[in-house]
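Why should sequence recovery work at all? Because a backbone constrains its sequence more than one might expect. Tight turns favour small or flexible residues, buried strands favour hydrophobic ones, and helices have their own preferences. The token representation captures these environments compactly. In the example below, the structure is given first.
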């Protein structure tokens, strides 16, 4: 993944500290390689990070390398966006062909 100033790639070992331990809003993107919907989401995720990056933390996690965490969280497909506020999951998860409008509404 190319570096983006407001999007951080994390590993399962960082989940507790960076997501559960976060104050304020977090969006976590579970993605896969060779995944057309994941590629389509990437540019939307980057534009939202540019817009809201000062207020919301944006994290990406590679599902295949973090299968245990994905299984623990019930993530079965890519992409899956999970929204958090103050370490608690909020709203509904978004999966598959995700529209930018749906992300903003969450």
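From this structural description, the recovered sequence reads:
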């Amino acid at each position: 993944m190319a570096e983006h100033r407001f999007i951080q790639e994390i590993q399962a070992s960082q989940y507790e500290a960076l997501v559960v331990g976060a104050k304020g809003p977090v969006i976590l993107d579970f993605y896969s390689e060779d995944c057309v919907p994941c590629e389509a989401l990437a540019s939307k995720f980057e534009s939202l990070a540019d817009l809201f990056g000062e207020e919301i933390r944006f994290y990406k996690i590679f599902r295949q390398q973090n299968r245990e965490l994905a299984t623990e969280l019930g993530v079965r497909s890519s992409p899956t966006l999970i929204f958090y506020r103050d370490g608690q999951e909020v709203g509904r998860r978004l999966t598959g062909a995700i529209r930018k409008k749906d992300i903003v509404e969450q």
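A few observations help interpret the result. The chain has a mean pLDDT of 94.
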